[in-house]
Design goal:
12 helices; Aspartate Aminotransferase, domain 2; seven-stranded mixed β-sheet; alpha/beta; single chain; Aspartate Aminotransferase, domain 1; four-stranded antiparallel β-sheet; 449 residues; 15% strand; 15 strands
Length: 449
């Protein structure tokens, strides 16, 4: 969105309309000593061409865009068709907030409805909502949803859940009298230790929350985990941090999972220094009236014309405070709009091709890296698009720094999250990579390790 400043004449006209002679009068209610004076050392204003040139000069100092990146661990680089950026930047999509008035918000409501429909299809579940902040808070909302629905206060978390997601879940629950025990991961397979899960599940458990593909890149056996959880009449909740896995793997709903939540940034949202992100939630129909956020429904008016309305809004602004299920305030509809546009443009075949390329690039890397003497592929099976390496000499952070000097961001050292895992490096692959890029990475690792 371009910045178009007001002219001096326009400012004067505005002051006349509101009846002031100086802008400082707008702040006359503030104590004089608390007001900051205008900076007196700012450079003079630049013309638009000079301003653009100045920012381009500053941008040249940023070298990250020229690096070959294999970063992942919750933030993924995927190709975004240009039409998604073009259409989502149109003013009518950028400006609306919550579509309270359906008679003037049919476009926004239809976009949210179609996004919800596509996410329900991808997850294999009955209903999907809009308006969650990100994957981490979506995981926390899954915990709260399971507690509300079950009336139980104990939720088990897999230790292979993204550490930042787990931290957010614990922050949400710390004052809510919710117990959050951790279920171990089998070291040999990288999957949830089913015996530990069985041992810790009891009749007080509301749910078991696990991630698949998990933080180590491994695809869990969701069907088996769900069956174990259901034996205790608890709920199963799957977290998906890499949404591109959804069109490639068996949908959570088809595995018997009750709740699917996660991060949909991979669907049309570019990486941008931490945001914006797009949390999603899908669930079985029994959870519909307990879902946080908003649900848009489709109906017909008295003349038989199709229309869209906010069917359920469970924030206390909309309903009685004691019946509210969440205080999700910022409407994520624009991020959902981009995701919906991306999914519509890619289509079923395009999504399948992109997801398959992600996996095949990762599989090629894992096969070739097995022949490198300085590293070991920790889990050579059951991964989607992330591969965990063990660095045999030095630390993973040292290897990452050495490869960055060669123009490659080689992955995320797990020591960022666990100081005890200094020899682990997690690499992510996507459809934006080709065989030459992966070969360049392999050669650099071989030289550096």
């Amino acid at each position: 969105m371009r910045y178009l400043p007001l002219t001096g004449a326009e400012r004067e006209e505005m002051k006349k309309v509101i009846g002031i002679s100086d802008v400082s009068e707008l702040f006359s209610c503030l104590p004089t000593g608390e007001c900051r004076r205008a900076p007196d050392r700012l450079p003079p204003a630049l013309s638009e061409p000079d301003l653009i040139a100045a920012f381009r000069e500053i941008a040249r100092k940023n070298t990250a865009s020229g690096l070959l990146s294999f970063l992942g661990a919750g933030a993924y680089d995927h190709f975004i068709p240009e039409v998604v950026s073009y259409l989502s930047a149109k003013g009518e999509f950028l400006t609306p907030y919550t579509p309270y008035q359906p008679e003037v918000s049919q476009g926004s409501l239809q976009a949210i409805f179609e996004y919800q429909t596509m996410m329900a299809m991808l997850t294999g579940l009955d209903v999907a909502n809009a308006s969650l902040y990100d994957g981490a808070t979506a995981a926390a909302e899954a915990v709260l949803l399971a507690v509300r629905r079950s009336g139980r206060r104990r939720v088990l978390l897999s230790s292979s859940l993204h550490p930042e997601y787990a931290a957010v879940v614990r922050t949400y629950a710390q004052n809510l009298d919710i117990e959050l025990p951790t279920v171990a991961v089998d070291v040999a397979s990288g999957r949830v230790d089913s015996s530990d899960l069985r041992a810790k599940l009891d009749d007080s458990a509301a749910a078991f929350v696990f991630q698949s593909p998990n933080f180590l890149g491994i695809v869990e056996d969701g069907r088996a985990l769900g069956a174990i959880v259901h034996e205790r009449k608890a709920y199963s909740a799957q977290v998906v941090a890499e949404a591109m896995a959804l069109p490639f793997l068996v949908p959570p709903g088809e595995n018997g999972i009750d709740i699917a939540v996660g991060e949909a940034q991979s669907f049309g949202l570019p990486l941008g220094f931490g945001g914006p992100y797009l949390g999603f939630m899908a669930a079985r129909e029994e959870f519909m009236r307990q879902l946080p956020g908003r649900l848009v429904g489709q109906t017909r008016d008295l003349d038989g014309r199709r229309g869209y309305v906010l069917t359920l809004s469970t924030r206390e602004q909309h309903i009685k405070r004691e019946k509210a299920t969440s205080n999700i305030c910022s409407n994520q509809a624009w991020c959902a709009l981009r995701a919906g546009m991306y999914l519509a443009v890619m289509g079923q075949a395009g999504l399948a091709r992109a997801a398959r390329s992600c996996h095949l690039n990762a599989a090629y890397f894992a096969k070739e890296a097995a022949g490198l003497p300085g590293v070991r592929v920790v889990y050579p099976r059951n991964f989607f698009n992330e591969v965990l390496l063990e660095v045999r000499r030095g630390s993973a952070a040292d290897l990452a720094r050495a490869l960055q000097e060669k123009g490659i961001l080689a992955g995320v050292p797990l020591s960022w999250f666990d100081p005890g895992k200094e020899d682990r490096l997690l690499l992510a692959f996507s459809e934006t990579h080709n065989r030459a890029a992966v070969d360049r990475l392999l050669a650099a690792i071989g030289d550096a390790s």
